Amino acid sequence: MPDPEPSFDVVIIRDKPCWKRPIAEWEALIRPAAFEALRQSEWSQSAEISILLTNDAKIQELNKKYRGVNKPTNVLSFPSFEPEEILDLKAEKKLPEPIILGDVVLAYETIQKESSSKNKLFDHHLIHLTVHGVLHLLGFDHKKDEDAVEMESLEIKILSSLTIPNPY
To answer: Using one digit for the tens of pLDDT, what is the confidence trace for 68-83?
Structure first.
C-alpha cells in the first residue's frame, strides 16, 4: 500500500487592521501558494506553517530583534530547523506527526509600496512573497549567486503553476 499524501496545514493570523479583507480571502490566496511551494520543493512529510499578516512597525521590530536590521521588510521567515536538518527530515521515511516548519511574517505596507512601485498586482506580489518565505523555511536561500538562481528558478516554476507571471 502506498504512503498517504502528506497533510499540510497553514495557520494564518492577522494581527493588524491594515489587512482589511476578510481572513478567508487572504487564506484563499496564501494557502495554495504555501501548499504549492511545499509540493514543488518535493517536501513529503506532513507539515504545519504559521503565517502572520502584520504591518511595517511590527515587522521592523522583528527585523531589528532577529536580524539586527532596523527597517521594515516585505517578508521574514523563521525556520524551525537548520538547512541540513531539513534535508535529513526530507529524506526520512514518513513521520507520524506533522513537522512544524516555522513562521512566515508578511508586512502589508511594504508589500503595497513594492507592488505599486513595480507595477505588480498586490495579490501576485503577496503570493510570490508567501512562496519565497515558505522556501526559506525549507532551507532555500539566496545569499550566494548559485543559490539565488536555484531559489528564483523554483519560485518562477511554482508561480507559473499558480498562473502568476515571472516576478523577476
So the answer is: 999 999 999 999 999 8
